[in-house]
């Protein structure tokens, strides 16, 4: 369809320019549909590409599309080098998945913030904290400190690092505080960019902020939501929405609203509010009383931040020349290969398998006590052999609740894998012998640990992005382990562990087995007064 000219309109789901010429390229829309939409009253403004449509309606991708890493870096670099507004460079909101620490992209941020890039700083958001149970009092403070340490190790310290906050883009936890922080300190004096690695939650955060009173009033009527999917690389280019000008009157009304909500108890909520709150409690351990509400319709759109329609217009790589930006910009940052994508187990999986591997609800830890000579399998994606040690040790699995865990003697582990890999027994991968012919074999790496106590884990064995196993052993007990991950993926020995007391979140020992009954801690609700409190 060479006769169909480019329209210059981007997909409202992933941000790539819509086109009908190349089915294998990003932004493809069938020619007949493309023409029909172009001739319609709204044109292509609210249209999504075929890939986003498949993701939204069927939860599957027609193919895994990624813009070249160098192209992504050029886009980010060009944006950061835009002329300053009000004498201030852009603020970077960097989103990382706390479960994926150490974050693969974080070490690259200092290069983006070189002396010739007048950025306004970096505000790092540790996302998905709602999925992790509280293993001890003060666990959020400890998690935040781990993120701070990761920033320091990456070279982010001092002035460039504005703040570190823990949030859940999905349940709303921490987002009211984030909006207050942005409105009080950053206000409307510069652009804000949203960056992060694959599956860190950028699109979900974008959609939540779009409905909040951080977004220009009524902008949600003209700005479509980003496509949210567990499939890696959903957002391919730039998306945007306008930030509202936080006048004194607006900040006052916002503070009044927050005080009023914080004074309520769960019993005082409407039936619909309670229903939604209970839904959130099933999703995560840390939830907010609802999500940030959309902006007050009474607020005049004319008093939003002063800006023209090309606020983020900048020279772009080939194929992106028609992009027009506004205020808030999320990116899918592919990062430098192969650290971000090529070593991730998700790239080996089908769309159905990805859905099973990525946790979507609060993770319930599963703890097993193993003697030397025992093996633990996490689906067919990871394996840990306890080869040598004097005493039993505890192995706590932190992974999607839908992934099975199996324990067997080391002597029969190879036979179990050969017999059941690709079958329902292991669940992932799925597809039988034919699927396993194309799936890479598990490769071993020996790990030596020394226990620090029977209630405190010494390290996490992170099995790529499939999850991790926290190892707890008696003090000074030396353990020789052999951990396996699929060939081409990365095993990370995380010391200290992310949740050192995770083995204590368990029930009684199940008689005749190596397993303990699971126990799910209660959810903590933010911005809501407990019944009986004054």
TrEMBL record:
Organism: Heliornis fulica (sungrebe)
InterPro entries hit by this protein: GTP-bd, Mito_transl_resp_regulator, NOA1/YqeH-like_C, P-loop_NTPase
Pfam short name (any one): MMR_HSR1
UniProt-listed PANTHER family: NITRIC OXIDE-ASSOCIATED PROTEIN 1 (PTHR46406:SF1)
Residue span(s) of domain G: 192-243
Gene Ontology MF term list: GTP binding
Protein's name in the database: NOA1 protein
Domain NOA1/YqeH-like C-terminal positions: 395-495
Annotated region described as Disordered, given as residue ranges: 291-310
């Amino acid at each position: 369809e060479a006769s169909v000219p480019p329209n210059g309109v981007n997909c409202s789901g992933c941000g790539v320019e819509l086109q009908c010429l190349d089915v294998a390229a990003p932004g493809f829309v069938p020619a007949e549909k493309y023409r029909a939409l172009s001739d319609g009253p709204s044109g292509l403004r609210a249209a999504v590409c075929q890939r986003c449509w498949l993701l939204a309606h069927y939860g599957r991708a027609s193919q895994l599309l990624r813009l070249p890493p160098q192209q992504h870096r050029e886009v980010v670099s060009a944006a950061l080098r835009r002329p300053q507004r009000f004498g201030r460079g852009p603020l970077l909101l960097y989103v990382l998945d706390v479960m994926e620490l150490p974050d693969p992209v974080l070490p690259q941020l200092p290069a983006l913030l070189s002396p010739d890039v007048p950025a306004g700083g970096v505000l790092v958001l540790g996302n998905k904290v709602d999925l992790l149970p509280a293993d001890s009092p003060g666990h959020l403070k400890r998690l935040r400190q781990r993120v701070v340490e990761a920033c320091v190790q990456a070279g982010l310290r001092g002035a460039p690092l504005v703040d570190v906050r823990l949030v859940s883009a999905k349940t709303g936890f921490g987002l009211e505080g984030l909006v207050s922080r942005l409105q009080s300190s950053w206000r409307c004096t510069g652009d804000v960019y949203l960056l992060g690695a694959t599956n860190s939650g950028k699109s979900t955060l974008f959609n939540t902020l779009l409905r909040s009173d951080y977004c220009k009033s009524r902008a949600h009527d003209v700005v479509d939501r980003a496509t949210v999917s567990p499939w890696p690389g959903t957002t391919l280019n730039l998306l945007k929405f306008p930030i509202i000008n936080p006048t004194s009157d607006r900040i006052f009304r916002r503070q009044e609203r927050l005080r009023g909500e914080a004074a309520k108890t769960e019993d005082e909520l409407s039936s619909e509010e309670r229903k939604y709150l209970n839904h959130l409690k099933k999703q995560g351990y840390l939830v907010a009383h609802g999500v940030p509400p959309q902006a007050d319709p009474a607020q005049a759109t004319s008093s939003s931040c002063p800006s023209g329609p090309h606020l983020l217009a900048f020279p772009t790589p080939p194929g992106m020349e028609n992009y027009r930006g506004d205020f808030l910009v999320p990116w899918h940052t592919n990062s430098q290969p192969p650290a971000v994508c090529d070593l991730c187990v998700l790239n080996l999986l089908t769309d159905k398998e990805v859905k099973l591997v990525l946790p979507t609800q609060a993770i319930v830890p599963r703890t097993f006590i193993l003697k030397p000579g025992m093996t633990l399998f996490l689906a067919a994606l990871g394996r840990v052999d306890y080869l040598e040690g004097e005493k039993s040790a505890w192995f706590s699995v932190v992974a999607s609740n839908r992934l099975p865990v199996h324990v067997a003697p080391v002597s029969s582990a190879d036979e179990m894998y050969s017999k059941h890999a690709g079958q329902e027994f292991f669940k992932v991968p799925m597809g039988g012998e034919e699927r396993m012919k194309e799936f890479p074999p598990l490769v071993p790496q020996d790990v030596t640990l020394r226990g620090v106590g029977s209630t405190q884990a010494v390290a996490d064995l992170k099995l790529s992005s499939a999850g991790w196993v926290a190892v707890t052993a008696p003090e000074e007990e030396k353990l020789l382990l052999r951990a396996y991950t699929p060939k081409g993926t990365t095993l990370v020995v995380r010391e200290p562990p992310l949740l050192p007391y995770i083995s204590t979140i368990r029930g009684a020992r199940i008689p005749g087995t190596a397993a303990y009954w699971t126990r799910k801690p209660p959810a903590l609700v933010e911005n809501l007064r407990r019944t009986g409190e004054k």
